[in-house]
Amino acid sequence: MKVSLTAFRRWVHENLPEMAARSRVTVLRDAVDPGSEAQIDYGFLGQWINPATGKRHRIWAFVMVLPSSRHMFVRPVVHMDQHAWTEAHVEAFRFFGVPRRLVPDNLRTAVDRPDLYDPQINKSYAELAFYYGALADPARASHPKDKPRGERPMPYVRDSFWSGRQFTSIEHMQAEAIVWAREVAGQRHCRPLNGASPAAVFAAVEAEALLPLPDKPFVLARWSKAQVGPDIHIKVGRTLYSVPWKLIGRKADVRSTATMVQVFHEGQLVKTHAAIEQGKRTDPGDYPPEKIAFQMKTPI
Q1: Residue 102 near residue 136, CB atoms below 8 Å
Q2: Which fold has domain 38-209?
Q3: Alpha helix (H) ranges present in the chain?
Q4: For residue range 178-193, what is the model confidence (pLDDT) as tens digits?
Q5: Tell me: the pLDDT tens digits for 236-267?
Q6: In the chain, domain spans
Q7: Which of 75, 76, 126, 165 could cross-link with 62 by S-S, CB 3.0 to 4.6 Å?
Q8: How many angstroms from the chain centroid is the CA of residue 182?
Q9: 226 - beta bridge partners?
Q10: Residues facing 115 on adjacent strands
Q11: Higher pLDDT residue, 27 or 131?
């Protein structure tokens, strides 16, 4: 016999009241220690027309909330790709300091494989967390109560920061979001803080509990996967880079920065190239000697 999920739940409620009651039990979270956690999410802000180009864009807000003080950082973005996600974290750490634990949603920019006990953090996010000394600990998929302070601010951000305002560029929007986070959201009277403002509580108890920024700025990197072709090259963006010939047919992990491209196979660095925007970089030493001998011979 097939029944709908709603009918099954109604049957459980009527015939197994104890089990139904058990499923409704919630566990109160302990208070979060200052500096110990940040809750992170994206939320949709609305449509924006770029006055310089006339193009319409969907704008999203990266929001990081410190649960202890309720202080928040907001960064509007046009794209929700890995680069924007990493860049937003760097700017948030510059705004606050570094919390010891990062609790993002199960977005692809943070998690490659969601799992209750052992989520697989993607390489870019793991590199960011390691550099700043933080633990990346994603919330469970479809469990917004794991990070309620990150979910609830979105309507407030849309109503207070976004609605009715005009922006000349995405950079203008991002600069205004920082001012709003500090002077409006940071100064609001917050009921869970007994009427105190997030900025005041942050300054009093949380700022000094956060980790300091590293001495050197974080280098933004993009991680990707590539397969080595018969010509011993991999394609990264619009550029071909050579790798050792023994890796033909294998898959490699590629770390790209503005100045360098590193190729890894099974966790080992196998090749490094200076980055170029377009074209081809070939190291003759990556070919078998007998394949490159004619090309490399000295003309008479």
Answers
A1: yes
A2: Nucleotidyltransferase; domain 5 (3.30.420)
A3: 5-15, 17-23, 82-96, 123-132, 148-151, 153-156, 170-183, 198-201, 289-296
A4: 999 999 999 999 888 8
A5: 999 999 999 999 999 999 999 999 999 999 98
A6: 38-209, 222-296
A7: 75
A8: 22
A9: 252
A10: none
A11: 131
